[in-house]
Structure formats: structure tokens, C-alpha cells
Amino acid sequence: MCRVKGNDGKCDHREDCEMGFMFSSEVMGEKSKSSVVFRRRIIKLWLIRVMSFTLLCACVGQILTLGTVWRPRLPTVWLSHSEVPLRIELPSDLAKVASPPKRVYKNNGFLMVSCNGGLNQMRAAICDMVTIARYLNATLIVPQLDKTSFWADSSDFHDIFDVDHFITSLKDEVRILKELPPGLKGRVKNGKLKSLQPVSWSNMSYYYKEILPLLKKKKVVHLSRTDARMANNGLPLEIQKLRCQVNFKALRFTSQIEELGRKVVRILREKGPFLVLHLRYEMDMLAFSGCTHGCNSMEVEELTKLRYDYPWWKDKVINSKMKRLSGLCPLTPEETTLVLKALGIDRNVQIYIAAGKIYGGKRRMQSLVEAFPNLVTKDTLLEPSELSFIKNHSSQMAALDYLVSLESDIFVPTYDGNMAKVVEGHRRFLGHKDTILLDRKLLVSLIDRYNNRSLSWDDFSLDVKKSHENRMGSPTKRVIIPDKPKEEDYFYANPYECLEPLDEPLRST
């Protein structure tokens, strides 16, 4: 048996050895000389045992000591490759970005949020609201989605996103419940919860000073119209990274939508490379923006009436011509045709139209179809039965277009709306995949000069190509404009904190 002496944890067998030798001497005095050899063998065996025990105890002590300082070194990549939908490869630099600290649970109250707008407007808002809940130590109730906008989509969160994955993938960051606990539901029904619209483009100090005290006092706070409620810049790095974690890891579409996306991509890939054109020339966008270039008088009247029918579309009287010349209108299908041809896009390339119903129908699409005959949509690639479960749900249809857009060889948005921005940012995250960011203000000027014959086709094409050489979604820092957050680069279009090693500077544009 090992006797431990002192604090060093080592075994001391001195007494054992001394007792062994005394025993051997007594035996030698009593036995005859004929047994000397036998006694020597006993002594030798005893010594071997003592030395073996000593060596064994020393080894065990060393192993225990090493065990306190050595552990298997596991990778600490904060976003798992296996959890990203479809065929996605993460940039190698991402492994150098550390995870935000795990949350210490302390429930300061329950946060309910109602998102407004289309799919990608709501997507960005969800990322912000999760981040706010995490840093306020609030329990987040699964967000409610907009059902009253122009599209009147009845889809709930679980109809678009994998709600169980959303909850479990963020379990180390924020507690998320599908609904309020039973004891608090009555308070909501009786109108005893505090409801408000957060101030746009706020930093976290606003939420600490204004929202946290309400949470602690009221226990349930409801935030409505949650789009663009967090600043683009000036936020701690861990907050920016958590926004990315929610966007790129937690917000996974349902398995049905993802499988449909895989099928569309598979069909397209069988025929070679493909370009996704986000042709944002739909009725709601034209009515909202007041952009009527190329529309006839009846269409202008229809769009104007629609704008007045929605009281939260604040701008009513809009000068369409001035807005277009300022680059604030989506390109028309005819303008888009000229731009794609000027950029040298192959006539025979597959072009997937990621959009809803194009305003003006076949008449407005004629020039684009003639220039690029391989135009396809989800409706032409899939059977009606395959689209039946999402057909009357604009957000679910947009989710399908989103997945196909991520996988395209080139993505070209004709307007920098929410879909264009969020897809741009996601494609940056996937390794700065080519996204042609059209300079609409310059393009409409060049197009008008070409159409009135003051600019030849060769010069027009050359100017278009040169002006877009550095507008391909390449690495860049966001433009920061103090006191004008709406005019600076949008975080979700270029979340560069999540893309590059922190010790390597990026160029600014």
C-alpha cells in the first residue's frame, strides 16, 4: 500500500523497505545455511515489489498532475459549417472570430416583438430583437410576423423558419419561448402590457436606459415595427457578431422550403452556370416609390391610388422623373436589358427571375425575353403541385428566391431594397460571391444618352463596364455617415466584422 508523505503527493516506501529487511535478518538467524539461496530470492522479490509500487505511484501522480492542465483542444468556431443550409462553404477566416460570451441566465422580463414589412425586412429585425433580448437578459417570445402589409401574407414564424432550430441554436445566448407562460397571457389579453415602437437606429444604451426599466417594472414589454431599430455602426463587436450568428446560423428556413430550394438549384446546375436577377419591378414597389417611368397613364393612376390607400406610406406626391434621375427608382425591365447586354452577359446564360409578378406583364418583359431567351422562374421550373403549399404566401415564395439567389454564380439586384441588401450581405459572408451592385444614378444617365443617340453603343458598354469593375461585392468596410444612419451602409448588406480576421484592415469606399 502507498503511504503518502508531505504535500508533494509522492509515495514513500522507506518504512516498508526497512520492515522487509528486518524480517529477512530474523529468518536468516533461524534457518540453516542450506536455505540461503531461497531467502535471497525472497529478498529480491520483495525489492522488486517495492520498486514497482514506487514507480506506479509516481506515474499515477504525474498523470493526475497533467490532467489538471491538459485538455483536448477543440475548435471554437462560432458558426458551424454543418448547420448552414444548402451547399455552402464558409470562409476560412471565420475560424479566427471568437464566439460571444455565453449568457448567464437572469430573466428581467419577457420581450414580445411584432415585425413589419416583407421577408427580409422582418429577417433583419428578428436578428436585432434577439440581440436586444440577449443583452437585456430578457426572455424572447418567438417573433410575430407582419400580416397586414401590402402582401397580406398569413404566414407565421414556424411556416417560414425552423422554429425549433431557432430556439435550440441560440440556447447559450438567449432564452426563447414559443409563447408566454400561462400566468402572463391574461395580462396581455387585458391590455396590461407596455407596447411601443423603439427609436430607429439606436445603440444599446437606449435599450439599457429606456427598455430595460420597463421590462423590470411591467414584466412584459411589446415592441412593434421593429425594422431598423439598431444602429449600423458604433456597437460592440460581440453585439455585431451575435447579429450575424442569428442571421447566418439560427434563421434556417423550414425543411420543405429548403428542399424546394435545393431542387431548383439542382435543375439550374444541370444546365450550367446561372444568374439570378432580382427584378424589383412589382406593383407595391412602384406604388411605394412613386416610380412610373415607362408606365402608361392608366398605370400611373393605378399606382398613385394604391399609394394613397396605405396611410403608412407617408410620401404621397412624388416627382417620378426627379426620383429616377437621382437613382432612387428600380430599373425597368427595358433598362435592365440594356445594362445586362452592356456588361457582356452571355445571351444564352440561364437567368432566374427572383421576383413576384412584374408590373405590366409580358409587354414590359418583351425586350428582356428577346435579349435573353433562357429566362426562368420558380413557376416554369417546378410543377404547380410542388409550389402549392407556398403559392399564396409571398414571404415563403421570397424565401425560395432567397435560397436560389445565395447559390447563383452572379446576383444582380435592380434595386437596393431589403432583399437585395440581405442577400448581398449573405453572399459576402459566403466568400464574397459576385454581386453586381448597380449604380442606378449613373446608369439612367448613360441609358438616356444612349437612347437619344448622344452616346454610341460601344461607348455606352465601355462606360457601364468600367463603372462597375469595383462594384462586385468585394471586401470593403461600411461607409459611416455621422448623424445620418439611413444614408450610411446597411449592416446586413456588409457585416464585415463577421467576414475578416480582426487584425487585417479592410479598405473603405
Explain what this protein looks like in three dimensions.
- By secondary structure, the chain is of the alpha/beta class.
- The protein has 2 domains: 110-250; 255-498, no CATH class.
- The chain is built from 20 helices and 9 strands.
- It has helices at residues 14-30, 36-67, 119-135, 157-160, 163-169, 182-189, 204-218, 237-250, 255-269, 283-289, 297-309, 320-325, 333-342, 361-371, 378-381, 384-387, 394-407, 418-429, 440-451, 457-467, and strands spanning 110-114, 139-141, 176-177, 194-196, 220-224, 274-278, 350-353, 375-376, 410-413.
- The strands form 2 sheets. A 5-stranded parallel β-sheet has the order 3-2-1-5-4. Strands 8-7-6-9 form a 4-stranded parallel β-sheet.
- Helix 14 links the parallel strand 7 and strand 8 (375-376).
- Helix 1 runs antiparallel to helix 2 and helix 10 (283-289) packs across helix 11 (297-309).
- The protein is globular, with a radius of gyration of 34 Å.
- The termini are far apart.
- The relative contact order is 0.11.
- Residues 1-34, 59-98 and 502-509 have low confidence and may be disordered.
- The chain crosses the membrane at residues 46-70.
- It comes from Quercus lobata (Valley oak).
